[in-house]
């Protein structure tokens, strides 16, 4: 019996993989650790994307939804929030996929192990001819599924990078977790805003997500002037942290950079450069003191927002053979193209099954996970990846080898647009709304947890 393709993750890229499989008449099972489609996206539902709808809907998925006749396509020129993306596209797509012949989408199904059926990592003989064994934990306990191939689109959302400069949590970071937020808080929520209003907030990170945090905090400062921010940057200067501004081909990203730059120079934000965190300690008054490896001290901190990117989880892939870049943890062939020190999202060449092939025949890492720790990922890139991969798994190497994607020169580099209407030009005294922040960008399109 032919086993189905197992797709890990019901986020944008995992569901696009399933749509391509359905279009080809392939049997598939999507395994999602969350309670619904786009579960990770729902955790940043308040964040507006840089991408318009035209860049957020996979072509095969659009054809499937159009054929179903129950879907109303969004305005291609509008910029949705994460919540709108999930509700208007991801969940309807998952529902449609669940009704296709040979297809299913399962929730509360966390993948905890992938291996070859009957063979551990060290066994060579007959390895390629055996199905995969996918170990899943769900409400009914643990089960073992057999798969003809595995497409891992589990993303990186569940593993945010810590504040500590060594790649591990700083001393005291875990012990003071009640003062830490990883990601973009919803500062439009009064309860969340109350946590930061009138406080001294340390923001770590330099990417677009961090800049979105600065913009939101600047709005709070307008209402409560007691709000102040220490922007912790590992680099020696702010430099080009704010992107291309008016020259950015992603209009909303350019606006965000301009707003964040205004916030960072408005007097509300203190830029603390060359700051690599060593420790976090609790002061006698209950506030925090953050110390860098070179002895700098930022004290009297009430809250810390860490927006320093994410990293992939390879723990459940320990029994399959991988070829990854040693620094990024990305598919090795992609590493030079996606390294954040010398690329823009749009200058990554469209790629597919050849670049994503792993030593374990039939296993592909796609979506944000294929980029490892690299921060800038386009949904469009992921859609092209899975179009090619599913064609290859179907034996259609001619289609798999085609390039069907043209990217903008400075890519959609993933979510984290401004919180409000993207067409509104923010302006507060001394500049625009918001502080900017730390290193890799927070929300990359297609970073769902399993």
TrEMBL record:
It holds the Pfam family Pyr_redox_3. Keywords: Oxidoreductase. It comes from the Bacteria. The keyword Glycoprotein does not apply. Signal peptide: none annotated. The keyword Cytoplasm does not apply. InterPro entries: Auxin_biosynth/cation_transpt (IPR050982), FAD/NAD-bd_sf (IPR036188). PANTHER family: FLAVIN-BINDING MONOOXYGENASE-LIKE PROTEIN (AFU_ORTHOLOGUE AFUA_4G09220) (PTHR43539), FLAVIN-CONTAINING MONOOXYGENASE (PTHR43539:SF78). This is NAD(P)-binding domain-containing protein. It comes from Nocardioides astragali.
